[in-house]
Amino acid sequence: MTTFRDFLVDEFPDAPVSELSGSNNLVYLVRTDQGPVVAKHVVDGDIPLGYLAEATAALGAHLPVQRIHRVCRTEDGDPFDAVFAEYVEGENLAAAMEREDDGPSTDALVDHLCRFVLACRHLPPMRDGYGLYKREAPALATWPEFVVHYGRRYWNRVRPFYEGTETAAAVDAWLDGGFAEAAKAHTAPHTVVSIDANLKNTVVAPDGRMVVLNVPIAALSAPAHAVGAISLHLRHRPPYKPFLDAAAERLCPDDAPLVPHFELWGMLGILSFYAVRQPDRQHEWRNWGSPVLLDDDFRDLVRTHLPAPERP
């Protein structure tokens, strides 16, 4: 069977092909006469490719995105599931933020992140009701059920590392009713939100533009969910409070008190990732670019924002 690289060589004769990434999906840079093209062999695609192209176009109507030139699908007779997109030169946002002297200004960063949240509200719906916009994701009947379903799924992988601690008891209580009670007290109309706003999925171009590379995993949820998915990655960094202040005014004025709940929800997802892949290295777990260890950040978030569980 021909490899994806062989396929690219046949598709673009005489064009140099070099590998950019081989972690999950194989990604190559093809330097054609018309300009560089990024070719991604989608092996573990959570988002159906047809929806990916549609969602990218919708997002691109509101802010700079990596434009998709072509989509190949095996279900249509193509030899590979693949995406061909423009090459965006620059540095990922998470790395650029570490350079405080010449990285993006706080005002520019906050404005971009707010515009990203608002742009995601224009993403096309992929399903009825509540559930992640990804392949084979379950459909949940209610919004609290959706939030708790995934929170508990992540927590079940992480909880053994915190067995017998007050942190574990507080998260247990949060999933067993604490979130639902908080949600009743702070309601807002639901909209399409990004639930995995990884800062590495944005590139800071040489001209200073911030360009979104990948359509995020989305879902129908509360505005505070979209904000917490981003502020989670800004914790312990200078832009954290300015972003929350702007978000409370521009993005989630009715349910801002729920933002820490969704920071916790997202942090459980990151902890779950490490619990499965690096179970013996908990002392090294760290959110991307964070100045603090993930374990310390998690315990601090729970201690600060969740009520202490009642002692029997």
Automatic annotation (TrEMBL):
Organism: Streptomyces hazeniae
Lineage: Bacteria, Bacillati, Actinomycetota, Actinomycetes, Kitasatosporales
Domain Aminoglycoside phosphotransferase per the UniProt entry, residue ranges: 21-204
InterPro entries (alphabetical): Aminoglycoside_PTrfase, Kinase-like_dom_sf
Domain of life: Bacteria
Full protein name: Phosphotransferase
